Sequence to fold (636 residues):
Amino acid sequence: MRTVVNMLKDAAREYGSSPYLSQKIDGEWKSLNFNEAWEESYDFAAALIEKGFKKDDTIAIISEGRNGWVTSEFGLLMAGCISVPLSIKLLPEEIPFRLNHSEAKAVIVSENVFPKLAGVWKNVKKKPLVIVLSDDESKMKTAADEAKLAWGKKIVAFEELVEAGRQSKAGVKSELEKRIADINEEDIVTISYTSGTTGNPKGIMLTHKNYYSNSHDAVETVPLPNGSESLIILPLDHSFAHTVGLYTSLLKGLSMSFVDALGGGMNILRNIPINLVERNSYFLLTVPALTGNFMKKMQAGVRAKGAFLDGIFTRGVDAGVRYHGDGFNKPPFGVRLKAWFPYKLASLLIFPKLREIFGNNLHFCIGGGALLEIKQQEFFNAIGAPVYQGYGLTEAAPIICANGPDKHKFGSSGVILPSIECRIMKDENTEAAPMETGEIVIRGDNVMKGYFKNPEETAKTIRDGWLWTGDLGYKDPDGFLGVVGREKALLIAADGEKYSPEAIEEAIINNSELINQVMAYNEQSKTTSALITVNYGLLKARAAEKGLKNAEQLLAEIESSFYAFKDDSIEIPGQWIPSTFAVIEEEFSEANKLINSTMKLVRHKVKDYYKDRIDLMYADETAHKKANLEVLAKLL
Fold:
């Protein structure tokens, strides 16, 4: 039977004593091998049965990545229950809806997230059992008392349940064996809530068959040596990390380590560089926002070393891009010969130092979750740490296509996974020609069962077995898929023409040192505009360096940086190049709900939040400029 529980059983049999999961506890890395992961999951499942949990009961998980996250999910699946993975980045007021809507009978929560849950407990209708993943039980008992939750009744430690399950009676173990044997490939594994970039969240039901199919396709498309290691930077509720981090690992005996979560929040971000070096990953999973941040820090770090090294670096990157071309079609010999010396010089003197941020064993990264602009792909390939773009969505479990070391083309999202059928549809009945843009439509065993309690949206999205993704793309003659962007997010000009905002935003961000975030905007206007946030620390340093003494001069400096992409042969049609921009003082963030947990802009919320600034850009040029100057004047 094609189930993820059987995948874990097979992995325990094949890779037994090899490390599967690792987390840092009290400054030391603690690992579980595949056998231990099976045993801990099994004991937790027994405890759930002993506590009366039934088949198809839902259990939410809100925690940073850690060993117990994984074994608790496998355990609840063994007991026949359904996992509801939730983001630790959810705002407190967003948690009750998901617990109530999923009808969660229990919620597994880390000590870092527990205070957030306790603060909205009164809004959770049917009070679930709280199971705490914590390394400090005494601290959690105090927190439980403060939340007025009776320890041992409505709140219990995960480790206590594992031990109780280990000691459970023969009848419980017999029932557990029956439930494991009865798991069907059509049974639901997870109800994963969308982050809501274009609307309200929906609960995506993914089955054992979905995950089994997608993980097997993934290892066929991107081969990995058995036993390879990766540090999981992305949260485990992220569908990409969930499939590759948990399930694909079972097929190749991969070892997954989790970023040190001690202290939560900002500490996790600070620990990433440290843990990258400590774990020395063979490959990494990432998203464009993270790799873009790495790229800018590398560029700034080399620049700080002086003009001589910066010149070798810049010429080396440019030469590396020319030397490799698009990664699929080899550049002419003359082009490669001319690029060889500056590329090899930088490869000897500069690039190895840059790669040290990832450790000394990184072979490649796989990027997903959003559009990875081609300049990032070319940059990281040139320095010897390639980031291969993939594409998918949670409704597809989630991978639809991917580039990899054996076959890749920069600027594309890769080749379609082996078991997936993919069409590009211009409308309901008309398939697009090669290089012609249309909606990406797929069919395969990876396609979700549907949206939980939402048959209307399910019927709109899955039609005759085909998943209509809502994303626009095209197939090129070499068999690669190009993804343009979300259909609902497209800019619309006055003449009805449409264009992807991501292409504009990534071009600006990746070519501008001063611009942190961009949201391009055009709703049936003759001109495109943008909302931007600025690296104020760098702008202030630039002002001191260049002697910029007033807001007018700062604005001119930002404008020059904003349009830097024009000097880099970026092909954006003239009508879509923003004619103006509004400088926003506050960053788009999860705190103000303008960024979701996967670091994507929530466009409809940004539009509502900054409606006045957007309207001003189109209504009154003088007032618009004044608003920009007022923001920048605060720096002086």
